[in-house]
Predict the structure of Dynein regulatory complex subunit 7.
Amino acid sequence: MSNNAVSDIEIQKQAQQQQNNILAILKSGNATVVNEKLQRCRDFKEGKDIPVPFCYKGIPTSTLSLENSPKEELVLEHVQQFQKQFQLHYDERRNLFLYPKNECDLYKFICTTLRPQKIGYLELYNYEQCARYMSFFIAYEQLDPPDQFPKVIPSPTNVARWQKGDCFDLAMLLCSVLIGVGYDAYCVYGTAPRSITSKNESDLEYIFINNGIKEDDEDKDKDNDELKDNEFAILPKEEIVSKYDTKIQKQKEEFEKEQKRIALTIDDDEPDQMGADYYAGKRIHCWILLKAGKRGVERNLFIEPATGRIYQINESPFLTVDAVFNNKNFWINMKLESKVADLNFDEMDTSMNWEYVMLDTLVEQSQQDDEDYNYGEDHNQQQKQVDPQQQQLQDIAQILDMPPPWPPKLFIDKEAFLKGTPLGESTVFYKKCKIDSYAPYSQEKDGLVQRYTIYQDYKRLKVYEIRYFYKHRSDKLVLKRRFPYEFKTIEEYEPGNKPQRKTITTIDRQLRIILYLSNVEITMVQQKELKKLERKQLKNTRTEMIEFDAKDKKFEQRDLIHNDRYMGQVKITKMTQKYELSELYPASEQPQKVVIDLVKNVIRVYYHMNKGEINPQVKELKRENMHGLGKLNETGVEKKNEDALVSQENQRIANLEKECLTHIKNQEDEVKKDEEQLRSQDLKLEKTLHDKARERYKETLKKSEEEKQREQADKDYLFPYLEKRKLLGKEVLNYNEALDIQKDVMTKLKERLLSRAAIIQKKLEEERAKLDQAEQMQQKKADPDDNEYINIQFRIDILEQRAIRFESQALLKYEEMDRKLKEDKRLNELKKK
C-alpha cells in the first residue's frame, strides 16, 4: 500500500511539473503554436498560397498588398478619428472593431470588406438554403481566444477559396452573398453562449429530421368496408361498448406500456452536462441580421452562419449586440445593457440608441428635401436660409462616401461547390441523431448522399431508425428506411424504374408489401402481401373488362397450393378481386368485388349499384355447389334438370375464381422476373447534365489538342521521334537522347530512300522483261510492230534516268538531313563529342 501511495504522489508531481513547464513556455512567448488563420494569411501575403485563383489574376498588386487608394485612406482616417472621439466621450475601454487588418497586413474599414455579388448557383438564391449550404461549405473555426476580436479579417473571396474561417469570416461571406441576391442583410457582432460559439448542436433538434417521411399511401379500408363511396350508403352502426370496461382496459394497457418502458429505458439517460464556462458572457460572436421588406421577408430574422439555423429576434439565443454593419454603414449600439429582444433594428438611422459612423447622404438629402419643400414664394426664401453648418455637413458627406469594396469578385469552383464540404463528407451530431453527408458520386457503389441515424437515448447507443438517401441510381432508389429492432425495411423509388415500383416493405422476411406506380396497364396502385402459411390478394384493379371463357375445366384442390419463391409451398386461404364499372353494361350486372373464402368454402359476389340505389346486390354461394354445377357429364351434354341461366351464372362465377387464382400466380411470376432482372443488372450511377457537358468539353479539348499535335508534327520534323521516346517539350536533350534521336531519324530516312529505290528498280526490271518478250514476238512475226517496241524502250530509258537522278538526290538528302540535325539546337550535345 505504501509503495502504491508513493508512486501516485510521484505521478502527480510529474504531471504538475509538466503543466508548469507548459505555462512557463506560453508566458515567455517562445511557444511555436501558430494560429492557422494567421498562417494562411501570411502564406497568401508571401506568395506561398499556390495556386492563385484566376479571380486574382490580372489585378494590380497595389490593390491587394501594397497600399490603400486615396479614397480608402481618407475614409480610414475618418474612422480612426471617430473611434478616438467615441472612446473619449463614451467608453474608453470599448473596442469598436472598425478597421481590422486584411490578409495583406493592411488596415481596412470593415464595411469595405463586404463584397455583394450574386454567385451563379441556384442553391444560393434563397436565404434558408444559402445559410444551410454555407454552414457546411466553410469549415468553422472558433475564435482564439474567444473573448477577443480576430487579428485579421480576410476577403470573402479567399474565405470561399480556403473553405475555412471563424464566425466573422463566415458571416461576412454569407452577408455578401445575401446582399448580392437582393436581401437586406447585415452583419451583427456581440456576445453569445458557448453552445453557439463552439457550434455545438448535440442538444438541439435536427430541423430536417422529418425528411423522407411521407404519409402512408396504403389502402386503409378494412375488409368490412365493402361498399363503394355513396351518399346514400347506410353506414355500419357503432358497436356498443361499456365505458367502464373501456376505462379498465385502457388503464391496463397504460400500466403494461409503462412497465415495458421502464424495462427498456436506461436510468442514466440524460444529456451530457457541460462544465463551467470561464468565458461566460464574454464570448464574441458574429451573425447575420435579415431585415424585412425585400425578397418577401416578412419580419426581421437572425441567421446563425455556423449552423444555418434561423431565429426570431425575440427567441434568439444571442446575449448582447455590440454593433451592426453592412456594405453601406456601421451602426453602434449605445445601450449594451439592453436585451437583444428589446432592440429596434428598424430605427438605426433615427433613434438615439444607435450611433452611425458614415453620414448617409441619401437620408440627409431626403430629409433636406422634405424640409425645403413648400408651396408659393416661401420656397425660395427657405432655400436661401440654409444653415451653414448643415451645408458643411452635407459637403463632408459627399466627400466621405463609402469607397468601393476592395476584395476581388467572389468565385466558387464548380467541383468544390458540388462537394458541399471541404473534404466531400461530414458528420454532425444532434439531439438523439447523427447526420452523415456525402458529396454526390463520392460513394460510387450505391450513390449514398446522406444518412440519418436516429437514436432512442441521449448516449446514442440504441438505434431506432436509419435512413439512407440516394441520388443518381439507375434503379431509381431514393430512400431506404431501416428499423433494426423491428426487422423492418422500407425502400422508396422515384418514377422511371422499369418495374414501376413505388415502395417495397419487408418485415423479418415474413411479410413483403410491394406498391406499384400507375401506368397504362395499371391505373391504380396494386398491393400484394406474402405471409407465411397465408396468402392474401388485397387489391387488384384493372381497367380492361374480363372476358369469360365458355369452356369448362375441372377445378381441383391442388390448385390452391402455391409454390412461393421465399417460403416454399403456401396455402391460399382467401382471395379478393375488385373491378371497375364499365359504361357498356348495366351496373347491376357487373360484379364490383368477388371474395373467395377458401376456409369457409364460400363465394360472395358484390355487384355495382345503379344511380339512386342504396343497397348493393350481394350473392353468397357455396363453392362445392358452384363447381358441381359447372361439371359436365361424360357425353358432354348439360344436365336437363338444371336451369340453363343458373348454370351459366354459376359457371361464370366459378370462372372468376379460376381467373383470380391465375392472376395471382401470373403476378407472382412477373414479380419474380422483375426481381431477377433487378438483381442481374449492374447498379450504375447516372450522370448529371453538368457531368455530361463536362465530359463533352473534355472530349472537345482532347480533339483540339490532337489537332494541335498534328499541326506541330507537320511543322516539326522531329515530333514523331520525340513523341516515341517521350521527350516532347524538352528544349535540350542530353548526349544519349540526342544520339538516339539522330539514329532514329537517319535510319528512317535510309529505309525510306532504299524503299523508293527498290520500287524504281522493280519497275525497271518489269519493263526489261517486257522488252525481251517483245523482241521474241517480233522475231516470230513476219511483219513485226515497231511501235510497241519503241514504247517499251522509251519507258526503260525514262526509268534508268530516274534511277540515276534519284541516286544523286538521295545522297544530297542524306547529307542535308545530317547537316540539319547537327544545326538543331535540341541536339547541341552531339557537337560537344
Notes: The first helix runs from residue 2 to 28. Residues 718-830 form one domain.
